[in-house]
Specification:
heterodimer, A: mainly alpha, Rna Polymerase Sigma Factor, Chain: A, Arc Repressor Mutant, subunit A, 7 helices, elongated, B: about 280 residues, mainly alpha, 2 domains, two-stranded antiparallel sheet, two-stranded antiparallel ribbon, about 5% strand, rod-shaped
Chain lengths: ~160, ~280
């Protein structure tokens, strides 16, 4: 990976990595730190990283940094510093979206990461398995369970609203 | 595998996760259209899919890097980095002084030492213990009498020894020689030693006990008188052991009298100078 490849990787993937982390830990500053650490490691190991797999490398590093962060009990907020639930007064789909985000925050960290990686980044089961060190079938099973759980919560919300 | 009432949920989830082929997706779409009951379930599952938000990482500028290994400074900037240290030449008077002193001392030692060495050649040494020995130079002899006196065997003394030998040979035959140097023996070697000794005594007490030689050979007499005068002029050199405990001690370098303490100080400085230069 050349300097140009690296800087291009910053342009393309920095937002995605940040989004993935901040949605998980819900703390902006910590998410920034994790993103910076991930890119620092990419820069240090740039000679051994294939540019085509740089995105996967970044998400893998960021994910495990985040797991370490969670295990250390650092600032994982449920009500949060990340401002996204405060729009509950809005109507329609936006309200449903907020409910969905709330439901996602109630998933366990693995399910949450699976959903985020799948929906935000569009990774395949195989790629998610590589990032999270899971088998493809595990990814599929855990992700489907998470979807069904979210569906249940959304159905409950729809019934309450109706 | 077909989409039906028992497999629909798995197909719906795979559809949402975008893990189906185009044909499989078409099959799911057809199943949903033909089964409105399952269409509601399909829509609820689709609502669980997150839509991409627009979170922006604001510190991208901090992440950009420039490869230090590829960084090349332009030559003009490099030129501005070069520095030359100003060289200040400081004359080392101390070293120069030492060098001059050492050189002068070496010249003195070489010059006067050589002269002294030449002067010591062929001297007669008379020791207090009375031993008689011949030095390496066959023309020098060691006296057996009192006093530590070094006498150079000059040509005049050599001539006198030859003369003494002649006198003894003459005295033994004619008994007309009356002097101090022919008291008892007729050995040639002994006679030569006695002649030398008599000259030493003459040198020490030449005013009170001059050598008197009565002989018929006037030429030999003149030679004896001349040699006596020569012997008086010869400088007797006495070597004394240096008393290192004496505060007023002096040492002699060639013909110069030098205070021992000062000389020791100079030698130490010179030695340290050479040691420093060696390091």
């Amino acid at each position: 990976m050349t300097e140009k490849d690296y800087n291009n990787c910053v342009d393309v993937n920095a937002d995605g990595v940040f989004r993935f982390i901040v949605k998980n830990i819900r703390h902006t500053e910590d998410a920034r730190d994790i993103v910076q650490t991930a890119f620092e490691k990419l820069w240090i190991n740039r000679n051994s990283v294939d540019p085509l797999k740089a995105k996967s490398y970044l998400f893998t590093v960021a994910y495990h940094q985040m797991i370490d962060h969670i295990r250390q009990g650092k600032k994982v907020s449920t009500t949060d510093s990340y401002d996204e639930v405060n729009h509950s007064s809005t109507q329609g789909n936006h309200e449903l979206k907020q409910v969905l985000l709330q439901a996602i925050n109630e998933l366990n960290p693995t399910q949450k990461s699976l959903v985020l990686l799948k929906d935000y980044e569009g990774y395949s089961y195989q790629e998610i398995g590589e990032i999270m060190h899971l088998s493809e079938s595990q990814v599929k099973v855990y992700l489907h369970r998470a979807r069904l759980l979210l569906k249940t919560k959304l159905s409950h919300f729809e019934k309450v609203r109706a | 595998m077909k989409v039906n009432e028992s497999t629909y949920e798995n197909y719906f989830l795979l559809y949402i996760d975008n893990e189906l082929t185009v044909a499989e997706k078409a099959a799911v779409d057809a199943f949903v259209l033909t089964n409105p009951t399952y269409a509601a379930i399909f829509n609820e599952l689709q609502q669980t899919k997150l839509t991409v938000t627009d979170e922006i990482y604001e510190d991208k500028a901090l992440l950009y890097r420039f490869d230090e290994m590829d960084a090349i400074l332009d030559s003009s900037f490099k030129q501005s980095l070069y520095r030359k240290e100003a060289v200040v030449v400081r004359p080392n008077f101390k070293k120069q002084y030492y060098a001059i002193a050492v050189s002068v001392a070496a010249l003195f030692v070489l010059f006067f030492g050589y002269q002294n060495f030449e002067y010591k050649k062929g001297v007669v040494i008379k020791q207090l213990d009375g031993t008689v020995a011949r030095t390496e130079n066959e023309h020098t002899y060691l006296s057996k009498e009192e006093g530590s006196i070094l006498i150079k065997e000059t040509p005049s003394i050599k001539k006198i020894t030859q003369l003494g030998t002649a006198i003894r040979e003459n005295a033994s035959s004619s008994s007309n020689v009356n002097n101090r140097i022919a008291p008892e023996t007729d050995l040639t070697e002994k006679a030569r030693m006695d002649v030398v000794y008599s000259e030493v005594i003459a040198h020490e007490n030449y005013t009170s006990a001059p050598i008197t030689i009565s002989m018929s050979d006037a030429t030999a007499m003149d030679a004896a008188i001349n040699s006596q005068q020569d012997l008086v002029n010869e400088q007797a050199i006495e070597y004394n052991e240096i008393d290192t405990d004496d505060n007023d001690r002096v040492i002699f370098i060639a013909s110069f009298e030098v205070d021992a303490d000062k000389f020791r100080g100079i030698t130490r400085k010179v030695g340290s100078l050479f040691k420093r230069n060696k390091n």
